[in-house]
Predict the 3D structure of the following.
Amino acid sequence: MSTFDKNWRTIPNRHGFMMFVLLTGYFLIMRFIGLGHDYWLRALNLLIVFFVIRSALRTYRSRSQASYYEDFTDYFRIAARTSLVGIALFSVFLAIYLDQLDTVFMEEIRTQENISPYLTPVSAAFLIFVEGITSSLACGYILIQVMKSRTVEKPLEAKQELRKEIKS
């Protein structure tokens, strides 16, 4: 079994579950203190997603010899699977929460958001899933590019040292 196969199984599952726990904890804390209706607080979900995906990519980098340039698809697959695990688990939790645990909150969402009078807990969870996957894939792509840009200077420094050695 290759290094990528081992990492492909462990890193996204572990970090995806961590993403699920953090998103669920944040959601429940916001509901508990009465800030569940503040739309702008959802932006903090992006920070959770950002740091978990960053952690997954850095863990993969430390466990493998992958290069940001040559193995972009491996990095993106790690980010995508981490996102899929975390967001899918959170969406399932949200569907169960809205359907079984807090039906009043579901009614408030139906009346305040004006999406549709036929909005169900499953369709609301699906909307969160689509929004979460879209933002987390974009976040993963951006993170890979940012991490890659840090390594650009190293080849230039090596070329400059080589030129110095050739001149002397």
The chain has a mean pLDDT of 80. The chain has one domain: 3-167. The CA atoms of residues 18 and 128 lie 18 Å apart.
